[in-house]
Model the fold of this input.
Amino acid sequence: MSDQPLGLDVSKRAARKLARAQKAAQTAAIAPEVTSGASGARRRIQRTIKIVILIVLINYLGLPALAQVREKVHKLGDVSFGWLALGVALEFGALLAYTQLTRVALPRKSIRLFRLFRIQLATKSLNSVVPGGSAAGAALGYRLLVTSGIDGADAGFALAATGLISAVVLNLVFWIALLVSMPFYGFQPGYIVAALFGIFLIVFAGGLALALIRGEAGAERFLRRATRRFKKIEPERVTAIVQQVAGRVREILNEPELARGAAIWAAMNWLLDAGSLFVFIRAFGIIANPIGLLVAYGLVNVLAVIPLTPGGLGWFETVLGALLVGFGVAKSVATVAVVSYRIAAFWLPIPIGAIAYLTVRNDLRLRGLTHAARAAYEQPDSRFDWAEEFGHRPAEIPLPDTDGNGAAEPN
Done:
């Protein structure tokens, strides 16, 4: 039996428990700061690595390409400006075809063509200036579509379906050109990677469409489990999105005109863009072999899914120029033609897309004012209600009579 009083022993135990609780609270308070600091340090390290990679790529790929352009600048004296103008026109034709592809994936008559074209310009502009810009561009396109009155599920489906259909058609174009070129140029082992990627993408697209059509319930259960941890996502909303997307996929596949239209517009997008490259080469006096050009064009665009630099800046020009030289285009012409093509395809849409974004935002503001004016016209308020809500009435002015006898009430 202890000689200490029981009350004193209990007090010491309580003091020890209190000390442990205070220490645990201090540790818990310090932990978020440590985690936040570690997260911030990790982000800074990742940003530094990306900047170093970008500098290396520009130094070893971009700057040599610019040096080659300076060496071949005398070729500009032989350029045909009519062909250059045609190349620029084909670039905008390709973007218009991509806009029509997106429109096919959206519900009928849900958005005007000119507004959707400007949204695509703004998205392309952002894609070209942000590293890994496809995600930022998709977010911008989604926001502009939703604020233009498109349902969120329809907008998300249209953006995803457009990108997937476009990628599948690009790989088909590359495969066809590659098969046709084999008797003339042989098969290069380096093409195997791109070809396998194309097979994987086509199988993935087909499996995804089949899963949404025949396995709608399974897709719904999977998304419910995946989003269960997010309290702000309602299960009913997940069900509605799955049903809406599956219905839209079923609608496109069940209507031959829609499916055919999507394939045609996707093919026109890539062929017009490749035609622009052909025209830019022709502007400098060389007629490139169309099959070899399609192989080089398809291969470099398949590899462009790897987001090394914004829009493939630097490495895209170097690889495409080297591939064209391998298919018989003179090195001096390939260099200046590829740079001219990239000015039209990459650099020119940046300022035009920024202007297009401002016009879309202005249209949305005017649209909001128009809706407010229409609502006010359809449900007008009395002048007294309007004055009560918006007007300024000095204290000495009497209130209007509301009892119906025509006399103003005294102050």
The chain has a mean pLDDT of 74. Residues 90 and 224 are 45 Å apart (CA to CA). The chain is about 80% helix and 0% strand. The chain has one domain: 61-366.
